[in-house]
Specification:
Blueprint (H helix, E strand, L loop, with lengths): L58 H10 L6 H10 L17 H8 L5 E7 L5 E7 L5 E9 L2 E5 L3 E3 L8 H4 L2 E4 L2 H16 L15 E4 L9 H12 L12 E5 L3 H8 L6 E5 L5 H7 L8 H15 L3 E7 L7 H12 L6 E7 L13 H13 L25 H9 L1
Parallel strand pairs: 4-7, 7-8, 8-9, 9-10, 10-11
Antiparallel strand pairs: 1-2, 2-3, 3-4, 5-6
Length: 413
């Protein structure tokens, strides 16, 4: 990439005329280190590992596991078809397997991973939020959304999150543990089974399934890198997996720069999304604690490098929060920083924060949203205000968290 001109610092023309709300926690205490800085959890706490599942293994490893269980190698392909094409782990439906050993064999290859605790559905029936219990009692959520011409599933990659962002309900819970690749994949398989059963409204065609995956559920995907990449490989494997298009998969991060660079080298052209939320380090240090490790410019440089390596346009996610990060000068600064790294490589997705009346964390007013978008577009940055789907069932961005009510429901189950 050619050397870019330095980016000048943009500040409000009259700071006294700009209302600036600072981030703060409400109703909970943010974990901090001995020096008073928000703590970051990159390593998963040690807990009992989930059972090894077909989706955790490569195609060759599946064959070896099948042989270990006393079955011929071709049974691996049969199991793959049942799980990835018919979306079932029920041995009773696998009539092409020998009846005598069927149940034990299937249990060894497709152990149960997710137990559905509850589901919430919007009145229109086009959005469903699932609460899942994992084998160790950890709780995660995923959200299934029907749009014209596509079906999107927002998946979780961790139980909880260790990034400690004060405006995100998931971050407030802290990190319970990383999810396995198969636990990630099972969210997709279970969603596909529901779609096939006609439980997501009127189908548009007979072979409907999840077409788009967004890693924007619980967790920081790049902090669970190895399991993330195994799940993406299974999603995109045309012969031994779900056979999805990599272009329909979006991996989001708050800005783990070394992992962004690793992702760019994978040669799997997923869509990359950077959750930026502020173009200036002064605000982003408080809003996104990982900014203390990798600053705005470092994250944007890594995002641009991702585009250079893959040719895939990068998405910038930006939650619009009233009087905190929605100022016109910040839209100008964001545009300036993006344009300094070239044209045509990025798209901005502002999303109104889910409103909490009376809170410091409140959605920007509509005229302010419109002006923020207008300024970016006027600067030549393609910008689209994003749909806040799922608010009524606490299934929208930043709302995924296991509540006390969820914990009680899981205990009953």
């Amino acid at each position: 990439m050619p050397e870019q001109p330095p980016v000048r610092s943009t500040t409000p023309p009259d700071a006294s005329a700009v209302r600036q709300v600072r981030p703060r926690t409400e109703g909970w205490s943010q974990k901090k280190d001995s020096e008073g800085r928000p703590m970051l959890q990159f390593a998963s706490p040690k807990r009992g590992k989930p059972p090894v599942h077909l989706a955790d293994l490569t195609a060759d490893q599946r064959v070896e596991k099948v042989k270990e269980l006393g079955m011929p190698a071709f049974r691996a392909a049969q199991l793959e078809k049942h799980y990835f094409t018919h979306y079932t782990a029920d041995p009773e439906r696998m009539t092409d397997l020998p009846a005598a050993a069927r149940e034990e064999f299937v249990a060894g290859m497709l152990p149960p991973l997710l137990t559905e605790v509850r589901r919430l559905q919007t009145d229109r029936g086009d959005t469903i939020k699932f609460l899942w219990k994992l084998h160790d009692g950890a709780l995660v959520e995923s959200v299934l959304m029907r749009y014209p011409g596509r079906i999107t599933l927002c998946v979780s990659s961790q139980a909880g999150c260790g990034m400690n962002c004060p405006f995100c309900a998931t971050g407030q819970a802290g990190l319970t543990r990383n999810m396995s690749a198969a636990e990630i994949i099972d969210q997709v398989v279970r969603a596909n089974a529901l779609i096939r059963a006609g439980e997501l409204g009127e189908p548009e065609h007979a072979d409907e399934r999840v077409t788009n995956i967004v890693f924007m559920g619980m967790g920081e995907p790049l902090a669970n890198y190895a399991r993330l990449m195994q799940s993406v490989r299974v999603m995109t494997d045309q012969k031994h997996g779900l056979g999805m298009s990599a272009r329909g998969i979006t991996v989001s991060t708050v800005g783990l720069v070394p992992a962004i660079k690793k992702l760019a080298a994978e040669e799997i052209p997923v869509t990359f999304a950077l959750s930026l939320h502020a173009p200036d380090d002064q605000l982003r240090d408080d809003l996104i604690p990982v900014n203390s490790r990798w600053k705005v410019d470092e994250a944007l440089d890594a995002a641009r490098a991702y585009f250079d390596a893959t040719g895939r346009r990068v998405s910038i996610e930006y939650a619009l929060i009233k009087d905190m990060n929605d100022h016109a000068w910040r839209a100008d600064l964001l545009a300036e920083k993006l344009n300094a790294r070239g044209r045509g490589w990025v798209h901005v997705n502002p999303i109104p924060l889910n409103p909490t009346p009376g809170s410091v964390w409140t959605s920007s007013e509509k005229p302010v949203q419109a002006e923020f978008v207008r300024r970016l577009n006027a600067a030549g940055i393609p910008t689209t205000l994003r749909d806040t789907r799922g608010k009524e069932i606490d299934g929208a961005c930043g709302q995924l968290v296991a509540t006390e009510e969820d914990q009680a429901a899981a205990a009953i189950g």
